Amino acid sequence: MGVSAPPIQPSPPDILKESGQREVFCGLTSIVWLHRRMPDAFFLVVGSRTCAHLIQSAAGVMIFAEPRFGTAILGERDLAGLADANEELDRLVKDLLERRPEIRTLFLVGSCPSEVIKLDLAKAAERLNTQLLGRVRVLNYSGSGIETTFTQGEDNALLAMLPLLPSSDEEQLLIVGTLADAVEDRFRLIFERLGITTVRSLPPRRSTDLPPVGKGTRVLLAQPFLSATARALQHRGATLLSAPYPFGVEGSRDWMAAAANAFGVPSDHFNAVLAPLVERGRRALEPHRQVLSGKRLFLLPDSQMEIPLARFLSRECGMELVEVGTPYLDRQLMAADLALLPPDTQLSEGQDVDLQLERVRAARPDLVLCGLGLANPLEAEGIATKWSIELVFSPIHGCDQAGELAELFARPLRRRALLQLS
Amino acid sequence: MELTLWTYEGPPHVGAMRIATSMEGVHYVLHAPQGDTYADLLFTMIERRGLRPPVTYTTFQARDLGGDTAELVQRSIRQAVERFQPEALLVGESCTAELIQDQPGALAAGMNLGVPMVNLELPAYSKKENWGAAETFYQLVRTLLKSQLPAPGTPKPSPSRWREEGRRPRVNLLGPSLLGFRCRDDVLEITRLLAEHGIDVAVVAPLGARPADLERIPTADANVCLYPEVAGPVCSWLERSFGQPVVRTVPIGIGATAAFLRELHGVLDLALPAELQEVEGQPSEAERRSRLPWYSKSVDSTYLTGKRVFIFADATHAIAAARIASKELGFQVVGLGSYSREQAREVRAAAAELGLEALITDDYLVVEKAMGEAAAELVLGTQMERHSAKRLGLPCAVISAPLHVQDVPARYSPQMGWEGANVIFDSWVHPLMMGLEEHLIGMFRHDFEFVDGHRSHLGDGAPTAASGAELEAATATATATVSTPAPAAAPAPGTTTAADAVREALESLWTADGEAELAKIPFFVRGKVRKNTEAFARERGLARIDAEALYDAKAHFSR
Q1: Tell me, which fold does domain A172-268 have in CATH?
Q2: B156 close to A (CB below 8 A)
């Protein structure tokens, strides 16, 4: 039957731990998808020109007339006196909100420099909340590179929203983690078919439309990088459902099965609803599985999605895993996916990029998942790559997206087969 | 504290990375936290570089801050020197490391590394990318030439010593770098141009140079400062310390290329060839090596006359563009500005010559506003001005960094020299509708063949505009991850509606006979006439715009 817990492995594979140069974005980068999820929110980074340049370079943003994120760039005067910096920040926020009256929630996002000079953004948020009299809610969190890696920025942003969640013991399924709107709609529809009627999301589509939380809340994580948020929700009485992440047909089915189990959905009903989706998902997957099967994959650490993706690509696409890197390993959140990895999988945590690239060169994998800084250099060495950043911007969750997700990995290989450049 | 939604220039350490990555055999150890490695993708994605930038980031974390980050710096330096065996080492810090004051340069100095080391101090909270590039280039050259510095009082070498030494004159080309606009092709074009005049190139730097090449800089008779943003300070220092004269004319456009060659011949004491002799009222023979003079004179270009052009770029390209636009294409420059504060004086002078006040800013919204107010018909700018121009419905050509992957074309397309002028003619004029074409469409547009849906000889089988648009949208989605994940750019509420209200109020002023008269005016000038007439009516406080008002306005503006 479909609703079954994955078998637990006796011992996890050995992990290679490295701490050296990391070729990974900092948490500020999460703003790029968070601001799209909540169109009534503005993300104001309090940082340096580097922070501003990072976000515009990582996101390739040149297209906005008025983007919903920006940087309050610290100048020498702000460094000289924190009192001035606070006044400056208040002035700047006031100007910004006058220009953007549609903004309902303002996130003050801490950066490396703001943390090193100990600019207290929590106090600033409190002060601004008083000044703004509830017209706009001001929250703060850290996206700094000395505290967070890439996707952890979303974890911190959601954590900042938690105190605002009303308490309620109402029975509900809470999906946590940013999903593409279309994907979210699909999940809601399927949960409805399963008979789970109260389904809410965090982050919500409107920043003010916050879900309640309490004893009746069952949390299903849509993204694997929300450790702090998951723990805080548990503190508020919610139950965290353990499941693989909804990548691929199997992962998506097991993910929904975890919810179905928690809500007492009869297994025949679950199977009846899911069977056609699973069948269709596998059909969509098949042509890509043929390209990927037997190919050797090396995943460099980037978005925290590496372990669940490795599980999908190995189990459903037949790829061999050379090394699965992750910026950090949260065993609790990764338990279900780790258990499904082949027993001898080489995991690595953290990064020393030069050493890791030496392992890549020695292993000559067929495909490397990596960031944009490394992709062309590896291609120039004759190693095919898939850029990891596309995975956080594309709708890849759910049975319906399994084909597309596999296609993202198959495309570089198909392309190589097509080109006759000798 | 300054609100920035988008910035023309990165921080100064990105400028230092441009120097390190442009060169061979140089490594840069950057004391910086995780995240700063984003800058690698500027080179690997925009420039499509097949090599990682030669940068080691210390990647310090919050938990390191209590302990010994200095040890981390030293370990990173040691490992980088061992692994990459650089011929010269740059050591510096990014914005955050500047605050914790580990002084990585001083630490490196005490390490006995056995390679020339430059301690880069680039103030991240007051300076920007181009300044950082210029400072790094200057410090590196200075460090490598320290042992060759002539004693004070040593007479300047004669720039014509090549004659006594029985060799061809030679110069250095200083300034071309990665992420600079078309530098790769400019170097080729200028090298060829100099060869035609019997002048050799000694060193090109930083692009493609090794530290040993920089040590050969003093062997040249003069320095050519191709990009003042990067090479300005180093050229001045070489002039002061080594007595090397500097050729400062930037050879973009035919007039500037000719002036550059004349300046160079003068500096090197070379006889000016007949083809470069100035002839009153017409381009010298050399200038006719470019097709620009003839293309600009040919009748099809008549329609370029007085086109209103708005220019915003780095200083080098903005100044050059103003000169070409006004003198070589017969445009009217209606706005000139730059984000290069270090060169603001030169930009202001160029603007003053055209009777304009230069716009010196790094706020792209200020630029967009000025662009709209100038009622420009063509915009020459950076990629950001291209976006702003698109919003305003204006044609645009990109003339300057900051770069987009599109600005690193596969084909040869320099900006400098005779071929550069050809490239500029094409790339500025193509966004505009061609002259004769514009007239023909005006003449025939009422013919039924031009009515929507009847445009193709394919008849009913012809693809419709809608399917074409869908195709474009699909392609755009497929490539979106390269350029950008495109969120719906919501127009700022308020501004649109206010503008609409003004528009409606103005439109309601037109009487039936005024509209009828306006309709008789050829469509390609109708928009301009409408705008001028409305401006005239507003200025005079007219309650209605009838045919007479239209002709009054026409007379008013024909002055």
Answers
A1: Rossmann fold (3.40.50)
A2: no
